[in-house]
Amino acid sequence: MLAPLAHDDPVQIGAYRLLARLGSGGMGTVYLARSAGGRTVALKTMHARIATDPAFRTRSC
Fold it and tell me: What is the edge-to-edge ordering of all strands in the sheet holding 28-35?
């Protein structure tokens, strides 16, 4: 289910413009996003506390 972006969500990550939230949980947030070329994608982000953990980063690749 789509939800509007929250006040603290970025409006853009890299080349992707964020359109809505698809979901969030203990590991991060998934956004509906669109590339500059118009492609619609799901963009998953990790919470900063997880992203800085070297063991988790190795596991998630």
Answer: 12-13, 16-24, 28-35, 40-46
Domain 12-60 adopts which CATH fold?
Answer: Phosphorylase Kinase; domain 1 (3.30.200)
Residue 51, number of CB atoms within 10 A of its CB: 13
| Each residue's pLDDT tens digit, 32-60 | 999 999 999 999 998 888 888 888 767 65
Instruction: Show the beta-strand stretches assigned E in the chain.
Output: 12-13, 16-24, 28-35, 40-46
What is the four-CA torsion angle of 36, 24, 49, 35, rounded to 10 degrees? 0
What's this model's pTM, rounded to 2 decimal places? 0.82
Residue whose structure tokens are 């409006």? 11
